């Protein structure tokens, strides 16, 4: 997260020109300094009265291929790359003047906007910045897309992306700061799949699109007018979009975002939930509560939970597993624990063709999604941790994955053996190394981080 605690704007007005991705029209955008607590506001100078649109989630009207803001008949398309720049570089207050219905696309990344902000310079303001600090886990799901957010001291995003055919599955995790945003995220370009182009052209969605401002993927081939800027450029662009869309909550975010196959639609859905939290009136705690007395303590003794599993258990069947884990069909990824010893645990998952994810992953070529193997590792680590007396009645939330490697596909009929070693468990946070294998051959491995919270 930006270490600056004060609000910021730019030092002077700057402008740039370019083409709009969807319209193909020439666009001039001008950035103007704004006073404290103003927020980000777009101004359509090409329309009568120069109407303005606040960069707020309640103005989002469309998330097809980009994020569109609307107020009445006034629209502004593809705002996410510009908003990602403002968020990443720590701009709180700004007026954005445009003479068209979308900002220029540049080279398909945020690099041009980044250059523009550097040219303008940053200006500290007297008012303090008030980030939205996540205190409880939150998750939303739409089809195969999952967005979760967890408490974290900074602003971190861990993302897994994949196309519908399982090509170019990529994972990247980064702590966001102005420095990492500029070096690791800002230059990642937008991309699309070859089979989507005909639909986009027919619907007038990419009149300004070309290999100058987008990367095209056709089967296993990447079409681009220059080498990829990062080895995992596609997932980094997904993170760029997430940062821009989440800035529509109207303030910086302090938390850890974990995204699986994100899209503008689910990004904005999470932003709506977060905005509701941000706008919720603060109620002073215990303002009207009488102080606890000794008699109340006697009448209301501390409740204790019975142990979910025997403390000396070395194996668990499915009924015992379900006493520990809250997961149920279709998201319980462990069938049996066959060995627990110290900080290590070994479990199995029987992979059946009846698994619901095989219906779409993929028709005619069923493969178990790699992200579900990660989930299985996290659940097995959770069993070992939650089985301890001090953690009875709690829930383990999957937070992050590092050093992820998918080596071989997992097919219907396979028995997935999941071996996990808990490396560190301090307070609410635990870290474990997981390895999945089939018939003695490693198919995936990762280091997973999870957090324990009250149920």
In brief:
Helix content is 21%, strand content 34%. With 455 residues, it is an alpha+beta fold.
Keywords:
single chain; 455 residues; alpha+beta; Thiol Ester Dehydrase, Chain A; 2 domains; 9 helices
Task: Give a description of the structure.
- The protein has 455 residues and is an alpha+beta fold.
- The protein has two domains: 6-195 and 202-278, 2-Layer Sandwich (Ribosomal Protein S5, domain 2), CATH 3.30.230; 309-454, Hotdog Thioesterase (Thiol Ester Dehydrase, Chain A, Roll).
- It is 21% helix and 34% strand.
- It has nine helices and 25 strands.
- Strands 11, 12, 13, 14, 15 and 19 form a six-stranded mixed β-sheet that branches. A six-stranded antiparallel β-sheet has the order 20-21-23-24-25-22, with helices on one face. The chain has a five-stranded mixed β-sheet with strand order 2-3-9-4-5, covered by helices on one side.
- The two termini are 28 Å apart.
- 41% of the residues are buried.
- Mean pLDDT is 85; it is low at 284-306.
């Amino acid at each position: 997260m930006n270490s600056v605690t004060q609000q910021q704007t730019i030092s002077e007005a700057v402008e740039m020109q370019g083409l709009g991705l969807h319209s193909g029209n020439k666009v001039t955008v001008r950035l103007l300094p704004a006073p404290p607590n103003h927020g980000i506001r777009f101004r359509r100078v090409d329309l009568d009265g120069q109407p303005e649109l606040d960069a707020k989630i309640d103005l989002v009207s469309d998330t097809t291929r980009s994020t569109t803001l609307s107020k009445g008949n006034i629209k502004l398309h593809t705002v996410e790359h510009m908003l990602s720049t403002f968020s990443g570089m720590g701009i709180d207050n700004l007026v954005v003047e445009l003479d068209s219905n979308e900002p220029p696309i540049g080279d398909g990344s945020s690099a041009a906007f980044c250059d523009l902000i550097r040219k303008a310079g940053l200006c500290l303001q007297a008012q303090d910045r008030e980030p939205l600090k996540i205190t409880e886990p939150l998750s939303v799901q739409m089809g195969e897309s999952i967005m979760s957010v967890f408490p974290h001291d900074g602003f971190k995003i861990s993302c897994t992306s994949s196309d519908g055919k399982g090509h170019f599955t990529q994972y990247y995790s980064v702590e966001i700061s102005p420095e990492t945003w500029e070096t690791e995220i800002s230059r990642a370009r937008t991309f699309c799949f070859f089979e989507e182009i005909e639909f986009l052209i027919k619907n007038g969605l990419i009149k300004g699109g070309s290999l100058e401002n987008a990367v095209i993927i056709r089967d296993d081939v990447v079409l681009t007018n220059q080498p990829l800027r990062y080895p995992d450029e596609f997932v980094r662009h997904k993170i760029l979009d997430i940062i821009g869309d989440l800035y529509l909550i109207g303030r910086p975010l302090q938390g850890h975002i974990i995204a699986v196959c994100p899209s503008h639609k689910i990004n904005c859905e999470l932003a709506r939930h977060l905005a509701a939290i941000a706008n919720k009136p603060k109620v002073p705690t215990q303002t009207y509560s009488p102080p606890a007395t000794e008699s109340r303590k006697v009448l209301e003794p501390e409740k204790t939970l019975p142990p979910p599993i025997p403390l000396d258990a070395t194996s668990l069947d499915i009924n015992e597993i379900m006493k520990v884990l809250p997961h149920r069909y279709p998201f319980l990824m462990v069938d049996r624990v066959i060995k627990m010893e110290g900080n290590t645990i070994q479990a199995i998952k029987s992979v059946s063709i009846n698994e619901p994810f095989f219906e779409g992953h993929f028709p005619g070529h069923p493969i178990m999604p790699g992200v579900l193997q990660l989930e299985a590792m996290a659940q097995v680590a959770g069993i070992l941790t939650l089985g301890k007396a001090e953690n009875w009645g709690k829930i383990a939330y999957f937070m992050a994955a590092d050093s992820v490697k998918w080596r071989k596909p997992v097919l219907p009929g396979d028995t997935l053996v999941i071996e996990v070693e808990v490396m560190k468990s301090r307070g609410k946070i635990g870290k474990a190394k997981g390895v999945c294998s089939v018939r003695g051959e490693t198919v995936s491995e990762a280091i997973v981080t999870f957090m324990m919270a009250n149920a």
